[in-house]
Write a structure and sequence with these properties.
single chain; alpha/beta; TIM Barrel; 8-stranded parallel β-barrel; 35% helix; 29% strand; His_biosynth; EC 4.3.2.10
Length: 252
């Protein structure tokens, strides 16, 4: 049986890790390289690094910060934010990323998924989907750091992204993000059952039980969290031990 992954997320703004609620009210959480090293030592399976200001500010990701973070790690690093071209993808990989997350540019130019996948390999391309509930059982994709509604149905977009060459989906519930009240299990499960590539559940983790639910009821391949790790409420090791105790296969 494949093990489930636990992934701390570093939302980075102006070179610092930040965290808010529903993409608003951001507050400082520390230095990305230091936090990445700390989570690696705790047993994180991967790290996700998102430059949350890159797309709204229409600039490229801070490659120097990515490089400094990557130097602290011996586990996969996914980096997203401000990726607009296959050249950006290549630069990100050169800076130390193992996988590249694309959101806004993929929506605006879906061919970027295919071209990036063909050049760098499907396993390197992660499509980040920020989804917000619009009515019962339906979610809309947002871009530019959760600022712009697109009119796209999140489930249909995930399916199309896979067909274009995506190797993984990073799915964030905007409604649950930062609330620490649990993941949107219905959304997660719906997308997991629609695609045949790994899905990372994101948004809403408040305790190990929530992560357990995302990996079992939500059927996700991995659970991502930020707040509970950044502010010392739980360590990665504690979450993994909880999951192991509840018969979820994880790497300790």
């Amino acid at each position: 049986m494949l093990t489930k992954r636990i992934i701390p997320c570093l939302d980075v703004l102006d070179g610092r890790v930040v965290k808010g609620v529903k993409f608003k009210g951001l507050r400082d959480a520390g230095d990305p390289a230091e936090l990445a090293s700390w989570y690696y030592e705790q047993g994180a399976d991967e790290i996700v690094f998102l430059d949350v200001g890159a797309s709204p500010e229409e600039r490229e990701t801070m490659y120097d910060v990515v490089k400094r973070t990557a130097e602290q790690l011996f586990i996969p690093l996914t980096v997203g934010g401000g990726v607009r071209s296959i050249e950006n993808v290549g630069e990100m990989l050169k800076s130390g990323a193992d996988k590249v997350g694309i959101n806004t540019a993929a929506v605006e130019n879906p061919k970027l998924i295919t071209r990036s996948s063909e050049r760098s390999g499907r396993q390197c391309i992660v499509i980040a989907i920020d989804a917000k509930s619009v009515r019962n059982g339906e979610w809309e994709v947002y871009t530019y750091g959760g600022r712009e509604p697109t009119g796209l149905d999140a489930v249909k977009w995930a399916e199309r992204a896979e067909s274009l060459g995506a190797g993984e989906i990073l799915l964030t519930s905007m409604d649950a993000d930062g609330t620490t009240k649990g993941y949107d299990l219905e959304l997660t499960r719906k997308i997991v059952r629609t695609v045949n590539i790994p899905v990372i559940a994101s948004g809403g983790a408040g305790n190990p039980q929530h992560m357990y639910e995302a990996l079992t009821d939500g059927e996700a391949d991995a659970a991502l969290a930020a707040s509970i790790f950044h502010y010392g409420e739980y360590t990665v090791e504690e979450v993994k031990q909880y999951l192991r105790d509840h018969e979820v296969p994880v790497r300790l």
